[in-house]
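Record type: monomer structure entry
Structure origin: computed from sequence
Chain ID: A
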Amino acid sequence: MHIRQAAAMTGLTPRAIRYYEQTGLLPASARTEGGYRFYSGDDIDRLRWIAALREWGIPLSSIAGMLDSLGDREAFLLAAGAARQSLYEQWLDASAALKSLDQGMAAWQSRSGLPSLDELKESSRELQQQRKTRGSWSDGIGWDGMAAAAGEEAPVRSLPAGYSLERYVATLAELADWLDPLPGETGADLGCGTGNLTRLLAAGGARLIAVDVSSSMLALLARSLPQTETRQGNLLALPLPDRSCHFAASSFVLQHLDHNERLLALQEMRRVLLPGGRLAIAAPLSDRELGELRRPLAAESCELFRCEDGMLLAVVS
């Protein structure tokens, strides 16, 4: 069929179809003697996939990877997960920008005259810091490589020197006992690794969402805990909706983040928790470093149960 017929069948414009051809999303195909492209049934199916994925706002660069993996379920889900993470990052950035703009406009409308340039810069300072923190983060550990080398023991291999396996196991058990997940609740294990804490949290019948930056770690977790939902993402832009979790846990992750990254990660944890949600963090941090996390929680009138010896337990407001 010709391009106008293809456009009618897919809901795309001829111009969009030609653009997808130029960018390589639609592979080269046969042409008629007159030089017109012939669109096969496979071409139409591919165009329909492109149209559907674009409706979700998925960028063309991500769509290419998803289309190339249509014959491989795991590869497709991996590409889709990466696209979802990108959309969450865009949504978080847009939400923060709108919040900052709303606050600015509320202040400007209460007085005469226009805001000064200095006021505009000041009102966007926090937004700029968040963007800088998210944009500068990178996986400096190489978690995918660690998962490939150490398998399910990868999280244990990353423990700081002198931190015993017995202490690690006892810490995870204490987090799970304090959180006390209940059937019908939804919780998140943030930086889940291969699922050592996830397994304990899921034992009580709660719905668990396991989040990790490493697709290889998540693949190992999925093999041992097939009923657990996995989502690829990092702690600075959690791939979770606002106020969607009754509890959240993070074990032995925050020590890999710097000060600004930890504060942003804590902000993200609070964002996804329901009012009264339970938050449990364990990391080999000093009491001073834990105190830096305690201050924003105290400022929001959160109820703190522990903030010492590498552990922070709180109920968020």
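Annotation 1: The CA atoms of residues 121 and 128 lie 9 Å apart.
Annotation 2: The chain is about 55% helix and 15% strand.
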